[in-house]
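Next up, a chain.

===
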Amino acid sequence: MKIEIKDIHELPVVAQNLLDSFPDDRFFAFFGKMGVGKTTLIKELCAALGVEDNVCSPTFAIVNEYRRRDGEPVFHFDFYRMKSVTEAYDIGYEEYFYSHCYCFTEWTEKVEELLPERYVRVDIEEHDGTRTLTATTIEQQ
């Protein structure tokens, strides 16, 4: 799936479209340069899932846990400040990644070797104020 985003006000529809396009997937790995809008889109995804908590980037904590209205957790990771993959082991990444709950990861390239066998890769690029989102299901062997 490929979507062009010209205005931030389009994000609620984009988020719902992304969730609807991958109804059986719970792991979304985000890739893109700093400032491209990864966290902003994840906030909209959480809103679409019924999260009422304050959604913010877990840059220093590495992971934030939010709750949906039904009580199900949603996990939001930011691996930007992670110095080595060992830190992901230290926080017990497997419990989160394989929980079958929604997981959204930023700066995923730092933990790419740890990703589940199946996930949705979301690439966001910006050109002249327009963002292009490309989402693809990845199935690793």
User: Anything to note?
Assistant: DSSP finds four helices and seven strands in the chain. Residues 11-21 form the longest helix (11 residues).
